Fold this sequence. Notes:
Helices cover 38% and strands 29% of the residues. It is α/β, with parallel strands linked by helices and 229 residues long.
Amino acid sequence: xxxxxxxxxxxxxxxxxxxKDYSSSEIAGNIYYTGKYKGVEVVVxxxxxxxxxxxxxxxxxxxxxxxxxxxxxxxxxxLSDDLKIGDLIAARKLCQHDLDITAxxxxxxxxxxxxxYVDADEELLIIAREVAKEKNIPLKEGIIATGDQFIxxxxxxxxxxxxxxxxxxxxxxxxxxxxxxxxGVPFFILRSISDAADMDAGxxxxxxxxxxxxxxxxxxxxxxxxxxR
Length: 229
Ligand code: ADE
């Protein structure tokens, strides 16, 4: 079973377009679509926005649906200047920028028995590089910072970029990463840029959510093609 996940309906709609023949079931307030893609079982769902909902959905995909791999598709805000709207970034590692117990002398993003950065699966990254090369699609790799905030502020953006050396920002990736890492399930987080986390971010996000979601979903499905071959 391969799990394909997004946070918002717009992020999984293009994926469901590839699956076509699926049935749905509801668990803990989310709808999970299961079906076969080219003969292989897949489960598709959007979690709702944020770390808690996305951790819940990732857990259900692993524990209930027995996902052996989880691929996340969606949009992100750019922190790095060389990421433009529509560009693709694959997470090499992910962190929680809003996790803060620095009052106890710990670094930002760290809690005891956790880690600041969770590494994405190397084999899935290799598959992503192969897809990018074969289809001649530029794919960046970097650090994705996750938190329960939509960032639309140059000062906050700069703080997160500097503190975590992060390239892109979103609201689910690190939560999904923590869950998959804990269960030992290989995961891959892909994002297409929808905005630059600046003053225009709200406007840009709404304008580019659909088109960037499609760019990300198409790439993810090319990866699935390779995984199942
Ligand atoms: N997802 C897409 N753009 C974002 C932003 N600016 N902040 C947080 N999550 C996002």
